[in-house]
Specification:
Length: 123
């Protein structure tokens, strides 16, 4: 409409219809309001919430069993972890890397035992 500020985008149809009617009424009544679209409001900043205490985890889960095994001074071999969880070797290694190392941010040490087996422990 001539003399009015163009609007690039509408939020939804109801808003579009309301703005169009407002513009038409202002033309008919003789008020030439240059602003059809209301000014944008700044989004209110949310106050940061207090961080929840770290989740200590449930007991008697496979994750808890693996953590207990890895906390031993001698750690746990891949075979021990496989027997305790019933998982295959690649699943145990992926769990150690992903869930324990990356998600829980535990420092996992990998070493060879005297018998040449790969073992892991929480360092």
């Amino acid at each position: 409409m001539p003399g009015l500020t163009p609007v690039k985008r509408f939020t939804n149809r109801a808003v579009a219809t309301a703005r169009i009617w407002k513009a038409v009424e202002s033309l008919v009544s003789g008020e030439h309001s240059r602003e059809v679209a209301p000014a944008r409001r700044q989004a209110a900043r949310k106050k940061p919430t207090r961080q929840q205490p770290a989740h200590t985890g449930r007991k008697n889960t496979k994750q808890a069993q693996v953590v207990v095994l890895l906390k031993r001074s001698g750690g746990a071999t891949l075979q021990h972890l496989m027997r305790a969880t019933g998982w295959q070797a690649h699943s145990v290694r992926g769990f150690i890397s992903g869930a324990l190392g990356k998600r829980l941010k535990l420092k996992i040490e990998s070493f060879k035992t005297t018998r040449g087996e790969r073992a892991y422990r929480i360092g």
